[in-house]
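Table 4 source record.
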Amino acid sequence: MEAGILENNAEEDNADNKFLQGDKTKLIQPTSLKKANLAKLKEVLVDWINNTLAAEHIVVQSLEEDLFDGLVLHHLLSKLAGVQLPVMDIALTSKSQIQKLEVILEELHKRLGLQDSSQTKWNVKLIHNKDLLATIHLLVAMVRCFQPELDLPENVTVEVVVMEVNKSGFKSEVQVEALTEESNTGSDSLSNSEMEDPIKKLLMLEADKVNTVKKAILHFVNQNMSTMGLQVDDMDKQFSDGVILLLLIGQLEGFFVPLYDFNLIPVNESEMLHNVTMALDLLDDTDMQLQSSVDPQDIVSQDITATFRILYTLFKKHKGK
């Protein structure tokens, strides 16, 4: 919903070098900062960091103030993933802190299976600028990857003001952003094998093993799409607009998806999101059992874990038929 457009004159725009046309900034609404479940999420994340790094005598008190220089993230990643990064332990200057964060996030994105880091909800600049929203998104992603059994508060959402620089000045819009999802488990006492995510475990294997599985799924996809004259060469990117995904589901499940129901040539993210959401709804209608819920935005953002989860589920159900 529109919160308003702030008109600035051209002289003010040119004078302010901090923002460039097309830049977007997100700020959590003050009312959301007071929400009890957000406070609880921050508390759980702080306790998780301190417990993980207790042996190294690192103590975090504030997510906003204690993670921006890369020290805590460096030790967390080393501890959780067992990697040694070529960075100095303590970076004192802003330049060295940014360089350190670049190395840390590059390695972390590999561990998270993220192919396109430009689509993440955090980046070096945001973390270094002590952006709470980006920092929480980053930590939640680390928990989900390295310690999925940790009990995070469910369904934590915040209202954010999205400010974008355009030709007229600043356009602002209020949106609701999810920090944690709602649990879809039906039991409070799951075994360890049930709690493990096979897709994430598979993607953390050696690259050649992952590529072997990818090639098998790609062959399966192209076998089923060949009758429509379609070819998939890049599994990581070609499903992000939802078009091939919709056509593939229809082909495998034996029904026709009317072309007027989706955007055959999507031109923006909103149309892509519509397509992907429709595809996931179709999977729900066919009682397709995904190991874990998939956010349509993750598919649009080319999150390989989310994309792989859907394709692997289709592959398991229909291979050999």
